[in-house]
Amino acid sequence: MEAKKIVTAEILSNRPIAKGIMELKLLAPESASQAKPGQFVNVYTGDSSLLLPRPISICDADDTTLTLIYAVVGKGTAWFADCCVGQELRVSTPLGNGFDVSVVREGDTALLIGGGIGSCPLLKLGKVLKEKGVKLNVAIGFRDEPFLEEEFRALGANVVVATDSGRVGYHGTALAAAMDAGMDCEHWFTCGPKIMLKFVAKEAMARGRDAQVSMEERMGCGYGACVGCVVDVLERGAEAPVRKKVCKDGPVFLGSEVFFDEQ
Ligand code: FES
Predict the structure, then answer these.
(1) Domain match, 153 and 77 both
(2) Fewest CB within 10 angstroms: 103, 109, 211, 234, which?
(3) Which ligand 1 atom lies nearest to the CA of residue 221?
(4) Which residue range forms the structural domain that includes residue 166?
(5) Do residue 36 and residue 73 come from a single domain?
(6) Among candidate residues 180, 198, 214, the one where a domain is terminated
(7) Do 87 and 152 fall within a single domain?
(8) Is 95 in the pocket of ligand 1 (CB under 6 A)?
(9) Distance 248 CA to ligand 1 centre (A)
(10) Of 259, 139, 236, which Cα lies nearest the Cα of 188?
């Protein structure tokens, strides 16, 4: 578990990219330069009535800048949405284990399946995998309004977009879109709603794969205080499942090891 450090970050931009979805760019060299795909940061509001930070997954990062995408769903994220360029926020250094990219080799194929806001951490993952010479297939699903499609296409990825409404792209789930498009790959990575992760993990296993699943949707406080993020995990070789905190032990687990129906 990494030591948490809080740094001050300057807002470079904070803009809507879809209905209720904001992209926040922060000048935060210490956090950005350490970021691995699938990790998250805790972002603190300046409102003393909102004590807990908001865990937000890292969508992208370079040596100086963190890109975070968040849904405006409560008081904390509404507070962020009102922030202006030049304002300072307190943000943690990267937290969580992130995706394990050491298992992927040059020339391998990887399938990235994202659901809604869960598509965001897959962008940084896609960049890292591209640098490793991996062939990328991406399936991203949304209720009605997609985002990040162009960013994934810019990686040279084969991209399919799905919407629940059918207004844009494939009418159905990202998993169904991927399978219909024949996107089975050697390595599967996914992030999104728990129900989606469950079906992706099952489909991967049925094909002899083991998906890396990011369970960030289950996070509350992001630093071990609320215990709202516990999942049962049966680690390889273990006889009984153990309770794991998504924020401390995850958010990424192997799909074959998570008890999706038991929480
Ligand atoms: Fe609160 Fe894990 S998110 S304990």
Answers:
(1) no
(2) 103
(3) 1
(4) 101-214
(5) yes
(6) 214
(7) no
(8) no
(9) 8
(10) 139
Q: Is 235 within the bounds of a domain?
A: no
Tell whether 78 and 110 lie within a shared domain.
no
> Does residue 243 fall inside a structural domain?
no
Give residue 170 CA to ligand 1 midpoint distance, Å. 35
CB of 243 closer than 6 angstroms to any ligand 1 atom? no
Buried b (16+ CB within 10 A) or exposed e, 128-147: bbbeeebbbbbbbbbeeebb
CA pair distance 209, 106, nearest whole angstrom = 18
260 within some domain:
no
Task: Please choose from 40, 92, 219, 243 the residue to mutate so as to test ligand 1's pocket, defined by most ligand atoms within 8 A of CB.
Answer: 219
Which H/E stretch holds residue 175? Answer: helix 174-180
pTM over 0.90: yes
The CATH number assigned to the domain holding 162 equals 3.40.50.80
Q: Output the six-digit token pair for 119.
A: 């598509």
Alpha carbon separation from 150 to 121, 127, 188, 229 (Å, rounded): 15, 13, 21, 32
Residue 122 Cβ contacting ligand 1 at under 6 Å: no
Which of 92, 122, 148 is a domain's end point? 92
Instruction: List per-residue pLDDT tens for the chain, 263 residues long.
Output: 455 799 999 999 999 999 999 999 999 999 999 999 999 999 999 888 887 889 999 999 999 999 999 999 989 999 999 999 999 999 999 999 999 999 999 999 999 999 999 999 999 999 999 999 999 999 999 999 999 999 999 999 999 999 999 999 999 999 999 999 999 999 999 999 999 999 999 999 999 999 999 998 777 788 888 888 899 998 888 888 899 999 999 999 999 999 987 54
Q: How far is the CA of 58 from the centre of ligand 1 (A)?
A: 17
